[in-house]
């Protein structure tokens, strides 16, 4: 078997034919969707705004022009982890790319600056803070800047307001690099965010490319919280041996959940913003390099992932918006193979998120927008219809029919006419003076005598005990859905008291019917028609194909460790599946498979052909 440890790539002349570069380096026979149109726009010197979902090849839209154009492309990226991951991917393909960040070791930073000034790099990745520094451009020396890319550009809107002020300065890139084409890309942008991107980045003249935001390979499941850990464990049992992410809201919960998973036989590591830089890098590298690892994280890990074979994403807490949910679940299945998104939520999640908005430092207008985005996410959680249709509707896209690949499609939700229950609940809010939280209101409705109900005289109210025929757990669901329907709101300045909204009057007057969904407290999905990973994290392959796939996967892991690169940088799962099912016997046959370019064929082809030809299958 040939040795790979000494294999190195030198900077090369890539030519100017995008299709030739696509096949030679990435091994793809043709462009998908609007990729070629985006590339041609940039090569013609025009600006572009690209709104493609994860997995549709956004990166190629700036990487290929960077190779075609003379000079070095600047790529502005929000997270160091994401930059490092993408640079390692570029290097594995033989592309001269580097990154610069504030905590970079000095000897490494000096070498990058030397190579940059010498014109040796095709792409330089930088954080927003570094990109707008007055002295940054001086590092290029006489090297020409070929293009400017702003990746994850939705952060201009979602982070620029109250988190990363440097995002608001990225519009200056047009002045700093006049005449240089700019491309801004994101997988997450509702209509409001799109307007923000155009305004803040001065992209009024940019050509906009929008693809469908549908991720058909991801199945969605959202359940009402009962015992979150038990529900999570039940979900994770479907993914033994697969890589995935579990998101939690707080650092403390991340660490506790990680420890609990390890205690229950699930190999897990944790990641959050307060970890020291080296530990963050070690954790990021472990997730990239290892198979079957569960990463428990806060949203600090959200965009720092370039791993294509993440098979699941689970949320133990409600994200802040539909955009956040879509972005985080989008880390799953970037390779297009079947993957799952799972979430547990409850009333307390909604209250906590609203409190975070109300107590934030944003302007009243920004808070209004954040509340609307949160309400949209709660609407997805509470829908009795197809979740995919509601998600895509939020992004301005109409889905023609039920998807058949979410929990509400595969196991339809029962509904009930809750108009009378809604009236009782709203009346309890009114009769108690709009001064109490949900727990106390449920005690009043169910006729529970407590120190509090007696002390405030609520046992004498006409609403006391009027709802005792309804279980307290159902009342929790009722109030959660009343909140989702914008019939009530939470007063965080008054210890979480429930307030009536103007819209409640239509319910009181019976001008509005209220339909509630029945809660399903445990994960209980019926099998859908879509292909799903089988037990043990395996893909649904036949016996002989699975046997060969496992051998190829073992070969890939060996090469990965030998070279110190992530397994997917050798070949992704999709290519291994094609090897296992099509069984190419020659180099020429292997080149016909997507993901096998001339560069990777020269480096790895012989080793994989040896395994395939040894099988005799």
From TrEMBL:
SUPFAM superfamilies (alphabetical): HRDC-like, P-loop containing nucleoside triphosphate hydrolases
Boundaries of every HRDC domain copy: 542-617
Domain Helicase ATP-binding: 39-207
Gene Ontology cellular component annotations, sorted alphabetically: bacterial nucleoid; cytoplasm; replisome
PANTHER family cross-referenced by the UniProt entry: ATP-DEPENDENT DNA HELICASE Q1 (PTHR13710:SF105), DNA HELICASE RECQ FAMILY MEMBER (PTHR13710)
GO molecular function: 3'-5' DNA helicase activity; ATP binding; DNA binding; four-way junction helicase activity; hydrolase activity; metal ion binding
Species annotation: Hoeflea marina
Boundaries of every Helicase C-terminal domain copy: 231-377
Cofactor: Mg(2+); Zn(2+)
Substrates-to-products reaction catalysed: Couples ATP hydrolysis with the unwinding of duplex DNA by translocating in the 3'-5' direction
Pfam families attached to this UniProt entry: DEAD, Helicase_C, HRDC, RecQ_Zn_bind, RQC
Source organism superkingdom: Bacteria
Family: Belongs to the helicase family. RecQ subfamily.
Protein name per the record: DNA helicase RecQ
UniProt xrefs under CDD domains: DEXHc_RecQ, SF2_C_RecQ
EC main group: isomerase
A biological process term (GO) from this entry: DNA replication
EC number(s) given by UniProt: 5.6.2.4
Record's keyword terms, sorted: ATP-binding, DNA damage, DNA recombination, DNA repair, DNA-binding, Helicase, Hydrolase, Isomerase, Metal-binding, Nucleotide-binding, Zinc
């Amino acid at each position: 078997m040939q040795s790979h440890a000494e294999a190195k790539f030198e900077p090369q002349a890539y030519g100017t034919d995008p299709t030739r570069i696509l096949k030679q380096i990435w091994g793809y026979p043709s462009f998908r969707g609007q990729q070629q149109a985006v590339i041609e726009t940039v090569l013609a010197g025009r600006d572009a705004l690209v709104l493609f979902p994860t997995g549709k090849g956004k990166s190629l839209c700036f990487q290929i022009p960077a190779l075609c154009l003379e000079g070095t492309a600047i790529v502005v990226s929000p997270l160091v982890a994401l930059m490092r991951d993408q640079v390692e991917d570029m290097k594995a393909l033989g592309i001269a790319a580097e990154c610069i960040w504030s905590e970079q070791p000095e000897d490494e930073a000096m070498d990058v600056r030397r190579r940059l000034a010498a014109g040796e790099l095709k792409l330089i990745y930088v954080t927003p803070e570094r990109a707008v520094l007055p002295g940054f451009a001086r590092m290029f020396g006489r090297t020409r800047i070929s293009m400017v890319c702003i990746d994850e550009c939705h952060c201009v809107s979602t982070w620029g307001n109250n988190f990363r002020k440097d995002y608001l300065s990225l519009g200056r890139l047009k002045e700093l690099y006049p005449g240089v084409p700019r491309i801004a890309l994101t997988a997450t942008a509702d209509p409001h965010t799109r307007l923000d991107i155009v305004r803040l980045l001065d992209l009024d003249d940019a050509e906009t490319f929008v693809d469908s935001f549908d991720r058909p390979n991801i199945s969605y499941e959202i359940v009402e919280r009962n015992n979150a850990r038990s529900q999570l464990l039940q979900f994770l049992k479907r993914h033994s041996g697969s890589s995935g992410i579990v998101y939690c809201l707080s650092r403390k919960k991340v660490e506790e959940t990680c420890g609990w998973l390890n205690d229950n036989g699930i190999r897990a590591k944790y990641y959050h913003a307060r970890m020291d830089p080296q530990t963050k890098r070690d954790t990021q590298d472990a997730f990239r390099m290892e198979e079957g690892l569960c990463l428990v994280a806060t949203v600090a890990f959200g965009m720092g992932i370039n791993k294509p074979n993440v098979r699941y994403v689970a949320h133990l807490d409600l994200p802040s918006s539909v955009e956040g949910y879509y972005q985080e679940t989008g880390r799953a299945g970037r390779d297009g193979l079947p993957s799952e998104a799972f979430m547990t939520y409850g009333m307390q999640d909604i209250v906590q998120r609203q409190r975070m908005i109300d107590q934030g430092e944003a302007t009243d207008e920004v808070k209004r927008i954040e509340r609307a985005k949160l309400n949209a996410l709660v609407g997805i959680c509470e829908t009795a219809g197809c979740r995919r249709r509601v998600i895509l509707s939020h992004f301005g896209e109409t889905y023609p029919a039920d998807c058949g690949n979410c929990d509400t499609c595969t196991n339809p939700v029962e509904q009930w006419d809750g108009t009378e229950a809604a009236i009782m609940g709203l009346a309890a809010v009114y009769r108690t003076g709009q001064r109490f939280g949900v727990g106390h209101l449920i005690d009043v409705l169910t006729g529970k005598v407590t120190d509090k109900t007696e002390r405030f005289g609520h046992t004498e109210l006409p609403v006391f005990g009027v709802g005792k025929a309804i279980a307290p757990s159902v009342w929790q669901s009722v109030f959660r859905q009343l909140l989702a329907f914008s019939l009530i709101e939470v007063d965080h300045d008054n210890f979480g008291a429930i307030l009536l909204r103007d819209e409640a009057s239509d319910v009181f007057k019976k001008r509005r019917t209220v339909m509630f969904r029945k809660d399903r407290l445990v994960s209980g999905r019926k099998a859908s028609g879509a292909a799903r990973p089988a037990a043990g994290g395996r893909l649904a392959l036949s016996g002989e194909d699975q046997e060969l796939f496992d051998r190829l996967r073992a070969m890939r892991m060996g090469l990965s460790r030998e070279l110190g690169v992530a397994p997917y940088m050798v070949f992704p799962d999709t290519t291994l599946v094609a090897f296992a099912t099509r069984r190419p016997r020659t180099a020429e046959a292997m080149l016909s498979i997507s993901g096998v370019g001339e560069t990777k064929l020269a480096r790895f082809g012989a080793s994989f052909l040896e395994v395939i030809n040894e099988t005799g299958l």
